[in-house]
Specification:
mainly alpha
Amino acid sequence: MNDPNPPSLLARRPLRRALRNWLERHQHPLNFWIHLIGIPLAVAGVVLFVALPWNQWYWGAAAFVGGYVLQYIGHRVEGNDLGEWAAIKRVLGLPYVGIAPGRHDQAQPKS
């Protein structure tokens, strides 16, 4: 019943698919590296907003906004929409850019 050798974290298909999708949307080196700073900064902003005393709320807000600004800059360089913005547009039936034009052909192996 219990598998003595459970699949590794990267062997699970949903995680692998999500990582592949993320890497496909962040191909430009600046976008990739700026996200490695922006995502933790935005998450730290949420933690700071909750953890710091109320009279210091601005530190958490600044970190959160700063992290998202970095991600926005990265996606402008890449030429595609932010993930959250693309999801909102998709739900509303609006056009969105999931993968930057011109990069999709590079991401897919040619037959």
